[in-house]
UniProtKB/TrEMBL annotation, chain B:
Species in which this protein is naturally found: Mucilaginibacter boryungensis
Pfam families membership: FeoA
Stretches assigned to the Ferrous iron transporter FeoA-like domain: 1-71
Record's protein name: Ferrous iron transport protein A
Keyword terms, alphabetized: Iron
Domain of life according to the entry: Bacteria
Length: 703, 71
């Protein structure tokens, strides 16, 4: 799709930029990543009244062109680099009409880059309501650019904005805001000459940001550095001087064009809400209540659609087996690829539900309050107030939770949150725990009301949260922060959530997961399927031949099928590998059968139950735990004559499942979120080592 | 007097900053010398604080607020 005009949306956070983007482009969007960084790239298309089609690119919200985070650094590099594939022909700066002063700082910086610009004055309805009067004509005249009053949530002014976009000049007409050259006259002149630009503000920005800009050649960058030294240029002092000059310009501008009452009404309403929501007692009670509700919903509401998706795929698999000729190609397609696809799709309900909540929390402004309330506790262990949501979400599933860490602006806090979230007991560990606990913990009450099995399960949940905190604390010292960790954050006014934004976010996140993490998940599940269904040499053929002999004819068909499946699994590549790793896992109390389960569990932890069922030759899935449990309870170690699953083995195994990174989907999503294989590799390594050591200790102590 | 010492509900006027890097960020956020600031609330655990500056609410940690000197 080729567009005739490229438009960039630029603005402060919380100005309704995403709402405007959704309104302009509808469902006509694609989401990707900017090359090399983990910043979401949102591009959409909008049909203009003159019949042309505009490509709209939504740049990350920022308060200034001087970046404080990776997200923000994208903005300048895209606006400044003429040869960048995303460089816009026109910039729409979106400004919150209820907070003109601070919003105009970014406008004046952007305008000085001398790219054609239009101002969209958003939230005019709220400004009107709180008595702020803006003389739009005068405002537009002083800036020298079109100013379009809009209310993106109420869809007013959108047609005017589209008209303004289509009539926009292709040369920049904006008035200068401040005298940029006065900040560093000689340096600006020299840089302008060096890189051949006639825009003094562009030259000044290069002086500040050249180290991070990819479009400069190393020689250019080194030359700029040299010039800075010659001129004794101090970046932060220059920024401070520039900001003060800009605010002086803004104060003059606002003095002539705007009248506002002493206190805005909307704000005091927001203040009243804050008195309750950030109250020292009710604040926490409400927050815990919301978290519990979220957690319950992810569990309860996703169960039904997940079952439906799983059943639909089973139906498709059966149909395909029926329709296609039997053979290895069909098996690969149906049991490998289609099954892998099913493994990807079942995550969608959980992702959609978690992101519905997160989008509501962010849209209303409550997320900032969560950060505000939790910052002091979470900071101590190297996390961020916003880490609470992914951690609690981790009780349902680490995959959507890790995707949700994007709300954490600080790089180091976000990485630590990603690293520890998979330690939290997710729902896939539940069938493993229930099976093992039922096996070795007596179903008895202690102190009247506490069931011992329930206590054991609760202990596993608490342990996971405690271990996540401890590991986070350790990472706090290992990781070096890229940005200075400050906490200067806007607390936006409370607003009603916009439901179409919520739907957009559910759709976006699910799509991003399927397209980007899905490939890895399918690849891994196909590999695991091959490993479990094929064996080296002629082993499988020999098994088939063996069971065709006459003495097996009298066997019941089900038993025969189970016996063949069990023996094939033992002789498959996974089974062989299980035997190979047995010496390594024996100190943990595991035999090769458990070894196979550890390997196949990498597709998803709950596969443990199914693998155990196959090994112990029974029908089994999560619904039929009892038959598997009975077989496992009766399993005897041939060497010792003792039961295989003693208390020591079961607890050691639970510890292994608690700490090990046995989840291909999480690995894939961590890669997607960090864009570097080192992170998932480091995570896999530390979790495996931790799992091994803790299982070892558990087994040796309990033995 | 530093901003971190101000009680909830009281106002002050920003005079200067003690930390250059922090001041750049604070000024971008509209917290400039000459600007009036009002402490609106303190987080339930005693830190961070929320102030009203140039018509909106800004939260910052006490350590950060202590770099702002009031008139």
């Amino acid at each position: 799709m080729k567009a005739e005009l490229r438009v960039a949306l630029v603005g402060n956070p919380n100005t309704g930029k995403s709402t405007l983007f959704n309104v302009l482009t509808g469902l006509n969007q694609k989401i990707g990543n900017f090359p090399g960084v983990t910043v979401d790239k949102k591009i959409g298309y909008c049909d203009l009244p003159d019949g042309r089609r505009a490509e709209i690119i939504d740049l990350p919200g920022t308060y200034s062109l001087y970046p404080k985070s990776q997200d923000e650094s994208i903005v300048f590099s895209i606006l400044a680099d003429r040869n960048n594939g995303f460089n816009p022909d026109l910039i729409v700066v979106i400004i919150d009409a209820t907070n003109l002063k601070r919003n105009l700082l970014l406008y004046t910086q952007v305008a000085d880059l001398k790219i054609p610009v239009i101002v969209a004055l958003n939230m005019m309805d709220l400004a009107d309501k709180s008595g702020i009067k803006i003389d739009i004509n005068e405002f537009s005249k002083k800036l020298g650019v079109p100013v379009i009053p809009i209310a993106a949530r109420k869809l007013t002014g959108i047609d005017d904005l589209k008209k303004a976009i289509s009539f926009a000049n292709n040369i920049a007409l904006q008035e200068d805001s401040i005298d940029v050259t006065a900040i560093a006259p000689q340096l600006i002149a020299q840089i302008s000459e060096e890189i051949n630009t006639d825009n003094p503000y562009f030259a000044l920005q290069l002086a500040h940001q050249h180290e991070h800009l990819k479009f400069l050649t190393p020689a250019q960058s080194a030359r700029i550095e040299e010039l800075e030294k010659e001129n004794d240029f101090h970046s932060q002092k220059a920024q401070a001087a520039e900001t003060i000059a800009r605010y002086n310009f803004i104060n003059d501008l606002l003095f002539d064009t705007i009248t506002k009452p002493e206190t805005a009404q909307e704000e005091s309403m927001s203040n009243r809400i804050d008195k309750v929501l950030t109250h020292r007692v009710f604040g926490f009670i409400i927050f815990i209540g919301i978290l519990l509700f979220m957690f319950q919903s992810i569990f309860a509401w996703s169960a039904y659609p997940m079952e439906l998706i799983a059943d639909a795929f089973v139906w498709v698999q059966n149909q395909l087996h029926h329709l296609l000729p039997a053979g290895p190609a069909t098996n690969l397609l149906v049991d490998g690829i289609v099954a892998g696809l099913s493994g990807v799709m079942v995550f969608i309900p959980q992702i959609a539900i978690l992101f519905a909540f997160i989008s509501i929390l962010e849209d209303t402004g409550y997320m900032s309050r969560v950060t505000f309330m939790m910052d002091k506790i979470m900071r101590k262990v190297g996390l961020n107030g916003k880490s609470v949501v992914p951690l609690i979400g981790g009780f349902a599933c680490a995959v959507p939770s890790i995707m949700s860490t994007r709300t954490i602006e600080n790089w180091k806090d976000r990485m630590i949150t990603i690293m520890v979230t998979p330690l939290v007991t997710c729902s896939a560990r539940l069938p493993v725990y229930t099976l093992l606990i039922a096996l070795v913990v007596p179903n008895r009450n202690v102190w009247w009301i506490f069931n011992m099995q329930g206590l054991a399960l609760t202990a596993m949940y608490v342990l996971s949260l405690v271990s996540a905190m401890i590991v986070a604390y350790v990472f706090k010292f290992i990781l070096k922060g890229r940005e200075r960790g400050y906490f200067i954050m806007e607390l936006p006014v409370y607003r009603m959530p916009r439901w179409s934004n919520v739907l957009h976010s559910m759709y976006d996140r699910s799509k991003a997961f399927v397209l980007q993490a899905g490939k890895v998940i399918i690849a891994v599940s196909v590999i695991l399927w091959v490993m479990a269904s094929y064996g080296p040499g002629k082993r499988f053929e020999n098994i088939d031949k063996k069971y065709q002999q006459s003495q097996y004819r009298t066997m019941n068909a089900d038993d025969l099928r189970h016996a063949i499946a069990s023996e094939k699994l033992e002789n498959s590549y996974a089974g062989v590998l299980g035997h190979v790793i047995e010496p390594a896992i024996r100190p943990l109390g595991f035999d090769w059968k458990i070894g196979i389960a550890l390997i196949t569990s990498f597709a998803a932890r709950e596969v443990f139950v199914g693998t155990m069922a196959t090994i112990y030759s029974v029908d089994g899935d999560a619904d039929k735990l009892e038959t598997v449990q009975k077989k496992m309870a009766n399993a005897i170690n041939p060497k010792t004559g003792q039961p295989v699953f003693t208390v020591a083995v079961a607890f050691s195994l639970m510890m292994f499942y608690a700490f090990a990174m046995q989840c291909a989907s999480t690995v894939a999503v961590v890669y997607r979120e960090t864009k570097n294989w080192r992170w998932p590799a480091a995570q896999f390594a530390y979790m495996t080592v931790l799992a091994y050591v803790i299982s070892f200790i558990t087994y040796q102590v309990l033995k | 007097m530093r901003l971190s010492q101000l009680k909830v509900g009281s106002k002050g006027i920003v005079k200067e900053f003690t930390d250059l890097e922090m001041s750049v960020k604070l000024m971008e956020m509209g917290c400039l010398p000459g600007e009036e600031v009002l402490v609106e609330r303190i987080a339930p655990l005693g830190d961070p604080i929320a102030i009203n500056v140039s018509g909106y609410q800004l939260s910052l940690r006490k350590r950060e607020a202590s770099t702002i000197i009031l008139q």
